[in-house]
Design a protein that fits this description.
heterodimer; A: Gyrase A, domain 2; Four Helix Bundle (Hemerythrin (Met), subunit A); Rossmann fold; six-stranded mixed beta sheet; 16 helices; 13 strands; 16% strand; B: 627 residues; alpha+beta; FAD/NAD(P)-binding domain; Arc Repressor Mutant, subunit A; DNA polymerase, domain 1; 3 domains; 19% strand
């Protein structure tokens, strides 16, 4: 329901590759959400705003109505998403007369989208068109003439019948959602009949059946969500970071992939001093390729800045290509870099194959068990096709299997899917803990409702209809 | 027309709705009359001999908490008691009792007779009279007697143009062969009330001595009797058993062969029946692959040998009934005392009522029970109580008493009927409640007794008990949260009940959260500050501690829900003047005149966008008034 007084968020600036994009969050949870995703640069300085509280939550370090510099960090993965300025504005002196937080993202559209997705994951709901203005009016902030504009906006939406997200709903997707919902509805019907008709001659809902069914539903949502990842990549590009100690052939790799000389390639280590970003297409997949300065201790100030940026670009990457010089044994620096990329999606390139391979790939496998390993001679163009295969497979293949072209690309759809998945997870963990059936049902029903919102259907009546169409009940 | 007497409130019908309505009005100090076509029908359990069950048990508890009679009456007259769903969570624990039908009727009748301000009379109401302004002024009976009244409550059950079907035979009749009320139905139609036909049915009653119980499975009551009424702490009674048996292939064959002779499939019945009580022929027709259907043999009372065959209602002819009942194990020599029948009756489209159960067209005419399209004794009683209360409030010019969906199952029931409407006899279910965890049967008094007291329905005795319970529960919750125990003191106990040991001092409340630990069991590790509490109080404490997290989550949802519920919509608002509403929404809103934006949002055909338009309209209006 769009009229509940919950917390809403949306991009408040026009879309496009502008310098700055603003995300606005409004509602009772605005500050706590900001607190979850934003880490002010000078958190320690917070003592200045409240001298006696050293353990101050982040949001309170942000003074009311004062721009604060910091980072958007995913609280789950600790991944840095963007470098931003954030501001919080205490109700009622705000546009909507509610608590409002705004985040100015400095990065690209990609980081803007990711920041918004993160805000939604942490408790906000994507705002409807005109919803900030509607709230502003309802809370007494705008004059009457502006109210007409809001009504027009609502009317325009009503006349078309669906909201824009609904319009983006492909037939395949709504079919898939209906399929998941119908499995969930059967489960809800089973639970309901067990609760409402304890005396009837019906199959008992055991925890075994319950957890099996919930896991199955969770998997179905997961498969759909995994297409969101691919969908996002197709839409926004795959962020690939190239890393390796100096002079292993990173820039050559980039050039080879670009088929043009862009980065300066020399024999002197440390030539690539800044981050170089390039956009290219690998078999139709847009790729945002970042060549990093390498990570090593250095006295050179300028290079140090470059190295700092390398680390940031690493944490933002969807995929990392670690380049090693195959002609020399693994050095201390190689080990350090390998350690830095542990647990991330990595392709290891053992380069300069033409000079003879002196690296033991089993050692690499031991350190990076998930990584794909390719032997290349980039300067000679050897192994590039193999690398492109792996990249393509990373986007479309692997665990992400989808037979059709079904992709989740809409922020709202993805948000609702993620929330319904987390409700299923809650139901599942309640079932594992042996909570009674009616308790488990609460979260399962919530998931059903959330899935219904994607296709514009509500719960009302469904479950009871399901029960009476499937079971023979009554005195 | 002979003028007989003048009353504040007149109730038409003395079933479960009528009894609660009359008692409530009288207890709130109004001179009240209950008229019934036949006084033998007072509080008759015309169908199954049981009260309560899932959702329904919750309603009985709520009626009791508000000062109604149903809970007290069933506690006096039950012959078996069972707490259902005990393996599930506390929100769906449901109490059900088998009643002695004769006693249930007699006890309720005696209560009506003894009630101050209340008269009970036999008499068939054939018309509702109104004054020049269209407001209710009284009722006219079959004997041309006129009673003046400020408010009238219709609770006609299945009597209104009742028609019984047994096979090829159909005749006008109220339930169980009592006279139907036909003229009143005609008069109500003439007044423009939107009446329609609903249908229900009941199985045969058999002679208990003709059955072989050794071939059936005995169904005993619960060992510990939990009373319905919050006024009763412990009840001791010898319980009577029910018996379980099944239909078989032969039963189904007989029924199938005679489908064409059933009133249901013969096309005689036009009324809509509930999915909740299908007849046996309907079950066999719709669930053809089900090999057997269960049935329960339930005694009708201690003073009779009649038994009720639960699960086997039918509209087949008597000879077919005898034939198929006899195919069932244990029923081979069955003697039918009263045949099964289907009954069709007139009822009102509940959308024609307001949330206080008053008719939209005729002022001071209130409606309750099956007449409103519901099914079930408990649903009827709940509406009767609310109609009685609201008739009194209306007469006194006071605000109506409306329970919302977060406060009571009664609120869910009435809001569903009035806001959403129903296309079949409506039965309450726990899954109809959005806030099930908060609307438990164990806390109905904590939710409602204060309200009942404020209305003047709850007497001092009940109120004192409620205050004491509140005090005890709160004090004990605080004590359990504060009292901590050390690992040395309790780890042996924890191991004995099968749960993991603790490492640091832990409060008793924390320990009680574990599924393996009960309030009773912690007496082993508790000290002498532990108070002696009643069963009701213990149940309350356990639930509040064990489900704390979930309850808190639901309370937060309720808080959000209330925001829209509290945004009042003026009753005089003409929705065709609200710019931006879609036509369908405008028509529905004008028909329903919802009391709040929350209620408006539940009307079918009113979209979230329409609600936004309404919110903006209200804000505009507010500012217009200010300027």
């Amino acid at each position: 329901m769009i009229f509940k007084e919950d917390t809403i968020a949306a991009t408040a600036t026009a879309p496009g590759e502008g310098g700055i994009g603003i995300i606005r969050i409004s509602g009772p949870e605005a500050f706590s959400i900001l607190e979850k995703v934003f880490i002010p640069m000078r958190k320690k300085m917070s003592t200045a705003c409240a001298a006696d509280k050293s353990d101050l939550p982040a949001a309170e370090c942000i003074e009311n109505r004062r721009m604060t510099y910091g980072h958007i960090v995913d609280p789950q993965s600790s991944k840095v998403i963007d470098e931003v300025m954030a501001v919080r504005m205490q109700a009622p002196h705000t546009y909507t007369a509610e608590n409002v937080a705004e985040i100015q993202c400095h990065g690209s559209m990609v980081s803007l989208r990711n920041t918004l997705a993160l805000v939604l994951r942490n408790g906000a709901r994507l705002a409807e068109p005109g919803e900030f203005t509607k709230r502003a009016f309802l809370n007494g902030r705008l004059d009457l003439s502006q109210a007409e504009a809001v009504i027009d906006l609502i009317k325009a939406k009503t006349d078309t019948g669906f909201d824009s997200a609904m319009a983006q709903l492909s037939g395949d997707l709504s079919l898939k959602i209906r399929e998941i919902r119908s499995v969930l509805l059967t489960l809800l019907g089973d639970i309901t009949v067990n609760i409402e008709y304890p005396d009837e001659d019906i199959e008992e809902m055991t925890y075994d059946k319950l957890t099996k069914s919930l896991s199955q539903i969770g998997d179905m949502i997961d498969i759909l969500l995994s297409t969101a990842q691919t969908g996002k990549i197709i839409k926004e590009g795959l962020r690939v970071s190239i890393i390796g100690k100096p002079n292993v052939g990173k820039s050559s790799l980039m050039n080879a992939l670009l088929r043009e000389n862009r980065a300066i390639v020399t024999e002197i280590p440390g030539t690539t001093r800044d981050i170089i970003e390039e956009t290219l297409n690998v078999r139709g997949i847009p790729i945002c390729l970042t060549d990093t300065a390498g990570i090593r201790d250095t006295e050179d100030k300028i290079e140090r800045i470059g190295i700092e940026k390398s680390r940031e670009s690493l944490s933002a990457a969807d995929l990392i290509i670690l380049v090693l010089d195959g002609s020399t044994p693994l050095s201390m620096e190689d080990y350090e870099i390998t350690e830095a990329v542990q647990g991330k999606p990595v392709i290891v390139l053992i380069n300069k194959e033409d000079l003879g391979v002196r690296i033991d790939s089993t050692k690499i496998r031991g350190m990076l068990p998930q990584a794909q390993i390719v032997t290349t001679a980039v300067a000679q163009g050897e192994g590039l096709k193999e690398l492109e295969d792996i990249i393509e497979d990373f986007v479309y293949g692997g665990t992400v299997k989808h037979a059709n072209s079904l992709l989740i690309t809409n922020v709202r759809h993805r948000d609702l899917l993620e929330k319904s998945k987390s409700s299923i997870d809650d139901a599942l963990s309640a079932a594992h803990m042996g909570e009674p059936l009616d308790i488990v049902e609460i979260d399962a029903k919530e998931a059903y409702e959330l899935l219904g919102q994607i296709i514009g259907e509500s719960v009302a009546g469904d479950i009871i209809d399901n029960v009476f169409s499937r079971f023979c009940l009554g005195k | 027309m002979v003028f007989m007497d003048e009353y504040d409130v007149i109730v038409v019908g003395a079933g479960h709705a009528g009894c609660e309505a009359g008692l409530a009005a009288a207890r709130m100090g109004k001179k009240t009359l209950i008229l019934s076509i036949n006084l033998e029908s007072v509080a008759q359990l015309f169908c199954n001999p049981s009260v309560g069950g899932t959702g329904k048990g919750h309603l009985v508890r709520e009626i009791d908490a508000l000062g109604g009679e149903m809970g007290i009456n069933i506690d006096k007259t039950f012959i078996q008691s069972k707490m259902l769903n005990t393996a599930k969570g506390p929100a769906v624990h449901s109490l059900r009792a088998q009643a002695d039908k004769v006693q249930y009727h007699t006890e309720m009748k005696r209560t009506l007779e003894r009630q101050e301000n209340l008269d009970l009379k036999q008499g068939e109401v054939i018309d509702i009279l109104t004054d020049d302004t269209g407001k209710v002024s009284g009722v006219l009976t079959r004997t041309n007697t006129f009673y003046k009244a400020k408010a009238v409550i219709i609770a006609t059950g299945t009597f209104l143009r009742g028609k019984i079907f047994i096979g090829e035979t159909a005749f006008e009749s109220g339930p169980n062969g009592l006279s139907p009320s036909v003229d009143l139905a005609d008069r109500l139609r003439e007044k423009g009330l939107p009446l329609r036909r609903f249908k229900t049915g009941t199985p045969a009653r058999a002679l208990g001595s003709s059955l072989d119980y050794t071939k059936m499975t005995e169904q005993k009551g619960s060992e510990k009797i939990v009373p319905f009424s919050f006024l009763n702490d412990n009840l001791e009674k010898e319980q009577i058993s029910c018996y379980l048996t099944y239909t078989n292939e032969e039963t189904h064959r007989v029924i199938r062969q005679n489908f064409h002779r059933s009133a249901l499939f013969g096309g005689l019945i036009e009324g809509i029946g509930p999915r909740y009580c299908p007849s046996i022929e309907d079950k066999i027709n719709r669930f053809a692959d089900k090999e057997r259907h269960q049935l329960f043999i339930e005694p009708e009372g201690l003073s009779t040998d009649e038994v009720y065959i639960q699960g086997m209602s039918s509209s087949l002819p008597e000879d077919v009934q005898l034939e198929f009942y006899k195919t069932i194990q244990g029923l081979e020599n069955l003697k039918i005392v009263r045949p099964a029948y289907a009954i069709e009756y007139d009822c009102i489209d509940s959308l024609d009522l307001k949330l206080n159960l008053e008719n939209r067209q005729i002022e001071n005419l209130f409606c309750a029970g099956q007449f409103n399209g519901s099914s079930g004794y408990e649903e009827a009683a709940a509406q009767g109580l609310m109609a009685g209360i609201n008739a009194v409030l209306k007469i006194d010019g006071k605000e109506p008493f409306i329970l919302d969906r977060s406060e009571a199952y009664i609120g869910v029931l009435i809001d569903d009927l009035i806001t959403k409407g129903t296309n079949e006899p409506y039965r309450i279910m726990t899954s109809r409640a959005e806030y099930r965890l908060v609307l438990r049967q164990d806390n109905a008094d904590l939710r409602l007794t204060q309200k009942g007291y404020d209305l003047g329905l709850v007497d001092e005795n009940r109120y004192r008990r409620y205050l004491e319970k509140m005090k005890h529960v709160e004090a004990e919750l605080a004590r359990l949260r504060n009292k901590t125990v050390s690992p040395e003191e309790v780890n042996d106990f924890l191991a004995a009940v099968g749960t993991s040991p603790i490492r640091a001092r832990t409060s008793l409340a924390e320990l009680l959260k574990r599924p393996q630990v009960t309030y009773e069991s912690i007496s082993q590790i508790d000290d002498d500050t532990r108070p002696v509490l009643t069963e009701h109080e213990i149940a309350q404490i356990e639930v509040q501690i064990k489900y704390e997290g979930y309850i808190a989550k639901q309370l937060a949802q309720i808080e959000r829900f209330k925001k829209l519920e509290n945004k009042a919509l003026p009753q005089t608002l003409d929705y065709s003047k609200v710019e931006g509403l879609r036509i369908e929404a405008m028509q529905k809103l004008n028909a329903c005149k919802p009391l709040s934006v929350g209620q408006a949002s539940r009307i079918s055909g009113v979209s979230p966008a329409d609600i936004n338009v309404l919110l903006i309209y209200l804000e505009k209006k507010r500012r217009g008034e200010r300027e």
